[in-house]
Amino acid sequence: xxxxxxxxxxxxxxxxxxxxxxxxxxxxxxxxxxxxxxxxxxxxxxxxxxxxxxxxxxxxxxxxxxxxxxxxxxxxxxxxxxxxxxxxxxxxxxxxxxxxxxxxxxxxxxxxxxxxxxxxxxxxxxxxxxxxxxxxxxxxxxxxxxxxxxxxxxxxxxxxxxxxxxxxxxxxxxxxxxxxxxxxxxxxxxxxxxxxxxxxxxxxxxxxxxxxxxxxxxxxxxxxxxxxxxxxxxxxxxxxxxxxxxxxxxxxxxxx
Amino acid sequence: xxxxxxxxxxxxxxxxxxxxxxxxxxxxxxxxxxxxxxxxxxxxxxxxxxxxxxxxxxxxxxxxxxxxxxxxxxxxxxxxxxxxxxxxxxxxxxxxxxxxxxxxxxxxxxxxxxxxxxxxxxxxxxxxxxxxxxxxxxxxxxxxxxxxxxxxxxxxxxxxxxxxxxxxxxxxxxxxxxxxxxxxxxxxxxxxxxxxxxxxxxxxxxxxxxxxxxxxxxxxxxxxxxxxxxxxxxxxxxxxxxxxxxxxxxxxxxxxxxxxxxxxxxxxxxxxxxxxxxxxxxxxxxxxxxxxxxxxxxxxxxxxxxxxxxxxxxxxxxxxxxxxxxxxxxxxxxxxxxxxxxxxxxxxxxxxxxxxxxxxxxxxxxxxxxxxxxxxxxxxxxxxxxxxxxxxxxxxxxxxxxxxxxxxxxxxxxxxxxxxxxxxxxxxxxxxxxxxxxxxxxxxxxxxxxxxxxxxxxxxxxxxxxxxxxxxxxxxxxxxxxxxxxxxxxxxxxxxxxxxxxxxxxxxxxxxxxxxxxxxxxxxxxxxxxxxxxxxxxx
Lengths: 256, 539
Prior knowledge:
The complex is a heterodimer.
Chain A: E1 5-11, E2 13-15, E3 37-39, H1 41-56, E4 61-70, H2 75-84, E5 88-93, H3 101-115, E6 119-123, H4 134-142, E7 145-155, E8 160-167, E9 170-177, E10 180-184, H5 196-202, E11 207-210, H6 243-252
Parallel strand pairs in A: 1-4, 1-6, 4-5, 5-11, 6-10, 7-10
Antiparallel strand pairs in A: 2-3, 7-8, 8-9
Chain B: H1 28-35, H2 48-51, H3 66-76, E1 81-82, H4 85-92, E2 106-107, H5 112-124, E3 129-132, E4 149-152, E5 159-163, E6 168-172, H6 177-186, H7 203-208, H8 216-219, H9 222-225, E7 226-232, E8 238-240, H10 255-258, E9 267-274, E10 281-289, H11 292-306, E11 310-317, H12 318-328, E12 347-355, H13 358-374, E13 380-383, H14 387-398, H15 400-403, E14 409-416, H16 424-435, E15 448-456, E16 461-468, H17 473-479, H18 482-489, H19 514-527
Parallel strand pairs in B: 2-4, 3-4
Antiparallel strand pairs in B: 1-2, 5-6, 6-9, 7-8, 7-9, 10-12, 10-13, 11-12, 11-15, 14-16, 15-16
């Protein structure tokens, strides 16, 4: 066990969470032209948590590195992460290709090796494909422990982490030694606004662009999206004049 | 846009079900979500007639009879005639809970011709009338003073047409502003007006009061964007200029008479308005500043550097942020690492930029912010990183109005002043109230909690809100005509966008000359010779 914690935070640029996505004309994806993109909200929470962990454990954390896999515009979300307190960052520029979770995990494993990270904090899922697999697959590839859907994280001096997760009717607490992968849930923290001076300083922080071809990995997609459909629109309701009519209608529809 | 609603009593809620054509709008949830923040004082609102004994009911006006009611029912149907006292309450009381009328009947016609029939009847029978929209007036303009008949346009709520090429929207006057906005959003356009009450106010009322709001800086006043109107005159005549064109230089521009007439000339039933293309990229910066001079300097620089993408420039004093922070319970966007409090900067500014190209707009905003940060014009700030943050930042400006009533009520002054002197009015009012021993934020035995200032720097428009625990007469006397005298001394306007209504009727001479007042009276007399339209107000 190394004597310091080196945190890695993978973040994804996705269609803004507050916008309603529209299906494209080819029905094989979501319309991305003229749409606002932002950091995946769960990843935003992961960045916030990484910075918080360093603040609460000043002597333990050596570095925080953020990585994004996406088009060159994903530099924006990396800049935001740097402004929030991340030290260094890298962009694996895959252009407009949408990689599958396994390919993403393979790349992240490479970055982990390069960075010597021993704690990976990442969103439990990206809100665009909602796959929710990258964290777990990465844990598998690395052979590390994993604590998913974290709602509270405590790092101990002995390089173990206690992670709480909300489950039906209560909270489950797991404890594991580093190296460890933590995936974040919504209630872990509330990301703060980034102040302008920090944003300006972030411009000078390192942002390295990595060519995926140089990583020597098989990133071939294995799945094909056959079709994407909107949920059927809800039919308009009707008004009934009396309780009797209501009951007879419900009987007609075999609801009672 | 959830927080911008002015939630009121439950009896108003059914209006939300009257969604405009081709649109179902998810408003109900935002309404209820909001109501939890509302701090209504439980005290009943005193009758306007009791509060202002000098204002007497005009004896010329007839009292409502059963014959009248029977006629009304024959025109609009039984369900559209409201006489139950519980149901009437929401129409008699204003949003600030400051004025309460005693109307015995509310009529909710469904068409322009029904309104024409009703007005003709009221005019013939000398029944005074109050036209009502969303009832969000801040000057007591939309509620009766005595027993006037309330005619609500709530049932005139359809979008009539939208031309995507020209951007001309034609709609009934009772369409809720937010519904019009959502409709336009789907068609790539934007309503040229936006204001905090958008979830409740009607576009007809916006025009009748010449509402200003948050987008005036960018899109100009309604006097420019309204192309035509349909309105019913007191004698039942229907004036119709809905066909109007952008360019038409034939005869007097009559529609202008109705814009800002506050229901004193007739009832607006339809509007035709030019709607700009919807900006594809919007961003918001929120800044903390050390002084009011720096606010002005930042505005000057924003106009120069941001130029065509600048779409809002709003300023707020620290006190207004303290109110907003208590009201929303959110951590302040510029709060330090370890606390959630409003930082010590005396002023805050919200800048919105909107345009068509995000890269271009972001780059412009970034270089502007860097330059004002570098030379310390701006002390601190933040920029929204996503839509959620953008809405949160706006909330710190838009929730102030509602937050101002948190302690019980508010005296609202909405004045235009030359920029250099604009904020000093807030200081002099706060000082005056303190001198008179009426103001204390901590001591709840004092009637006034604080005097706060915010508003549209871009338009030279200050909102002075005197947040009170109760509507005490000595507070009103300390404020009026003091505030108006200050405004007049600085050659400002006593009502920049809220209108005159009941509150400012006697103060209009502070902003209008005797000649102007006489011309207004002449016009009123010509179109409403019996004076039945929205009496006891305006002029």
